[in-house]
Amino acid sequence: MTPLVEFRAVSKHFGGIHAVDGVSCSLHEGEVVGLLGHNGAGKSTLIKVLAGVFPPDAGEIVVRGEARSFESPAEAREAGIETIYQTLALAENLDAPANLFLGRELLTPWRTLDADRMEHEALGVISRLNPVFRDMKKPVRAMSGGQRQTVAIARALYFNARILIMDEPCAALGPAESRMVLDTIRRLKAEGIGIFLISHDMGDVFEVCDRVTVMKNGAVVDTVRVADVTEEDVLAMIILGEKRRK
Prior knowledge:
Elements: E1 5-14, E2 17-27, E3 32-36, H1 43-50, E4 58-63, E5 66-68, H2 73-78, E6 81-84, H3 96-100, H4 115-129, H5 145-158, E7 163-167, H6 175-190, E8 194-198, H7 202-208, E9 211-216, E10 219-225, H8 231-240
Parallel strand pairs: 3-8, 3-9, 6-7, 7-8
Antiparallel strand pairs: 1-2, 1-4, 4-5, 9-10
Helix pairs in contact: 4-5, 5-6
């Protein structure tokens, strides 16, 4: 099966700092790949290369079998790649429909805002992610952390994202809200969406990831199937920067 995304020997340098150094890894449809490593391992730089924030200095990115070069995040979004950062980038004073269509509002034939259609469309995609979501018209600032994540994910999916990058989606969430987010990730997997998941929580990683790619000092230590390793194996790879001893 052709991967959704392949990094082929991708490198990114900032002066003498090799933030990403010859990284190769892949992501398939309906798969969650965890990107793991200490702060400074290169995970964030790698996803920013995929998201069109930074151009790679070497190597190539292949999306659905086609080599791509993104000059901006807008070009990456057009290719079906969306990033959900830990900050979520939501407008706190607006409700769910307004956030979902912020900057891409739906208009009537008279060029006025089509509020009813935006609410209907938002309800459809949000209900698909979280069937019990009930706060469509509540300002985002009054929503729980799990609900806010749902709105951010819905915004990506409505505009046909097939590749999601999720940066610490359960950070600062309580157990019930984290469960909501992990259940959402499972639903996305079932729909064939591929997800790169950055997380420091091994419990979450082992619950939803199919494979993990461990990075250290900008390079890949190894990529392993979650079913073949233990949490202790992965922690050792992160700390030591060495492949798992078999």
